[in-house]
Amino acid sequence: SPLGPLPLGFCILLAITFLVSTLTQFFAPAEQAAIPLIVEKRDLLSANSLYTTTMMASVIVGFAVGEPLLAIADAVVSQLGGAFGLGKELVVGGSYIIAGLILLILRTDEKTARLNSPPHEQPHVWQDIRDGLRYLGKERHVRAALLQLVILFSVFAALAVLAVRLAEILPEIKSSQFGFLLAAGGVGMACGAAVVGQFGQRFSRRRLSLYGSIGVAASLVGMSLFSHQLFPTLILLTLIGAFAAVAGVPMQTMIQEETPEEMRGKVFGLQNNAINIALSLPLAMAGVAETFLGLQAVFLGLAILVVSGGLFTWYIADTGSSHHNS
Which residue has the higher pLDDT, 321 or 65? Predict the structure, then answer.
C-alpha cells in the first residue's frame, strides 16, 4: 500500500537503511579505536593490512555467495513452515548477532583505563566534535592522513558509479554484470594490503602513501585510454585497488599511531563522518559528470585529484614538526 507518492515497502527500506547507518556511527569509530588497544604499536601496519585484506575478501565472497545463500535460506524457512518468507532477514540479522557475540569475548583492557576517569561523567557530543577538530587543526600528520583517506574513498565511490557505465559500453559483459568490475578492485585491494603487511615496514608511511597515490593516478589515466576493452579494464581496476591499499593502509596506521588513546574516539568519529560524506558526494556527482564530460575526462580528473592528495600529504609530512619514519 502506498504512503503518499512512495510505496510503503520503499519507505520501510529507507528507514532501515537510516537506522543501520546511524548505528554504524557508534560501531565504526570504536572499531578503529580498538585496534591500537589490542595490537602492539610495532604491529599496527600489519594489523591494518590484515584488517583490510579480510574486509575486502569478505565483501568479494559476499557478492559471490550472497544471492544463492539468501535464496537457500528462503527455501529452508518455507519448508519449515515459515509463512512470512523471512529467510533472508534471519540470515542477515543472524550474522550481526554472531558478530556481536564474537566481540563479547574481545578483551581490550579498556576498563582499567576508565578507573581513573571521573565517575558518572556525561558524554558531550558537540564538545567532543570541537575537541576532535581542534586536535586535527594542531596535528598536521593526522590531518593530512585523514585527507588522503577521504580522497581515496571519494575515488572508489565514483568508480562504483562509473562501473555501471563501463559495463554498458564494454561489449564482452552485460550492464547487470558491473559487479565483476567492482570485484576486480576488491581483489586488488586485498592483494595490495597483503603486500603492505608483508613488506611495508621497510618504508616510511608517507613514502608508501606517495607511491600508492601515483600508482592509483597512473591506473586511472590508463582507464581513460582503455575503457572500451574488458581485459585492460579489469587489470587496471585491480591495480587501482592494490595501489589504493598501498596508500590507504599506512595512512590509517599513522592516524592510530599518532592519536593518543583519549582522543581516538573523537578523531575516528570525525573520520567516519568525513568518509561517509566522501562516499555520498561522488555517488551523486560522478554520473552527472560522466554524462556532460565523458568517461575519459572524469577518469583524468580523478587521477589529478589523487596525485594532488598524495603530493599534499608528502608536503605536510615533510614540513611538519616531527618526521614520522617508523
Answer: 65
Nearest 10 degrees: CA dihedral of 55, 35, 313, 278?
A: 50
Considering Cα of 235, then 241, then 245, then 248, what sign does the dihedral take? positive
* Residue carrying the nine cell digits 575486502: 56
pLDDT bin (cut points 50, 70, 90) of residue 215 is: very high
Tell which residue, 133, 143, 151, 146, has the closest CA to residue 279: 151
pLDDT in tens, 216-244: 999 999 998 988 888 899 999 999 999 99
State the Cα–Cα distance between residues 69 and 103, nearest whole angstrom.
24
Quote the CA–CA distance of 143 and 274 in Å, as a whole number: 12
How crowded is residue 10: how many other Cβ atoms within 10 Å of its Cβ?
Answer: 11
State the chain's maximal CA–CA distance in angstroms. Answer: 67
What is the rounded CA–CA span in Å between residue 47 and residue 38?
A: 10
Q: In whole angstroms, what is the distance from residue 137 CA to residue 105 CA? A: 36
Check residue 60 and give its pLDDT.
66
**What does the pLDDT average to over 135-143?**
81
Alpha carbon distance 148, 144 (integer Å): 6
Q: Dihedral sign for Cα 285, 287, 291, 293, please.
A: positive
Among the residues of the chain, which ranges form H helices?
8-38, 44-79, 87-104, 110-114, 125-138, 140-169, 178-199, 205-226, 230-258, 261-293, 295-319
pTM for the predicted model, two decimal places:
0.75
Q: What 8-state DSSP symbol labels residue 201? A: G
Q: Cα–Cα distance between 319 and 326 in angstroms, integer? A: 17
Q: What is the pLDDT of residue 57?
A: 72
Phi and psi at 229, nearest 5°, equal -125, 130
Residue corresponding to grid cell 616510511: 204
Tens-digit pLDDT profile for residues 166-180: 888 888 777 777 777
